[in-house]
Amino acid sequence: MIVLITGDFCTGKDLTADMLVQQSRLIHDCEKFEKIQSYTTRKPRYEGERTHTFCTVEQYKDFLEKGQIIAETKINDNYYFTTKSQFDDKKINLYVIDDKGIKDVVESDIDDVYIIEVIRPVWLRDCPEGRLNRDRQSEPYKFTSDYRIINDGDIEKLKASVLACYDDIIKVKKSL
Fold first, then answer.
1. Strand pairing partners for 82?
2. Quick check: 5 and 95 in contact, CB under 8 A?
3. CA–CA separation, 103 vs 107, rounded Å?
4. Confidence (pLDDT) at 26
5. How confident is the model at residue 133 (pLDDT cuts 50, 70, 90)?
6. Which distant-in-sequence residues (6+ apart) come within 8 Å of 48 by Cβ?
7. Which 3-state string (H, E, C) describes 106-172?
8. How does strand 147-150 pair with strand 33-36?
9. Rounded to an integer, what distance in angstroms lies between the CA atom of residue 56 and that of residue 81?
10. Angle made by CA atoms 167, 36, 135, in degrees to the nearest 5
11. Closest by CA position to 19, among listed 159, 164, 125, 150
12. N or C: which terminal CB in the chain sees fewer CB atoms within 10 Å?
């Protein structure tokens, strides 16, 4: 199963994914959640950054030529993508993704896709300069989410929403 976590820049997508993984570990669930780290051709923002697997444009082109890329997007002339080999059929794979990537996954041969949309009001976003106005270089893709999390800055409400989402994912997984 692949759980796609999407939302605008600086809404709490990675935090949501991390909380889902943490919840899985807390209850020793046999359905292990795993967060997939996307590849990117952009340079790290700071030394030791571990938010992505950093690669060269040549490495990206090699993955592309070999047909290994499942989803990709281009932001500010940098590629962000994931490959088939990153996903484990025995786990619930969590992948933070934009709407262009969702389109790629939905139109691929991948079954069992669950979409979480994280929403946070613009006026509440604590986002580094320039990240809200990045050039997406693709048309928006309309999708229907399976679950919507509102992140209004209240960490306790966010935890409760993520826990309810976790329960829903487990219920959906068991019904497959």
1. 71
2. yes
3. 6
4. 81
5. low
6. none
7. HCCCCCCEEEEEEECCHHHCCCCCCCCCCCCCCCCCCCCCCEEEECCCCHHHHHHHHHHHHHHHHHH
8. unpaired
9. 12
10. 110
11. 159
12. C
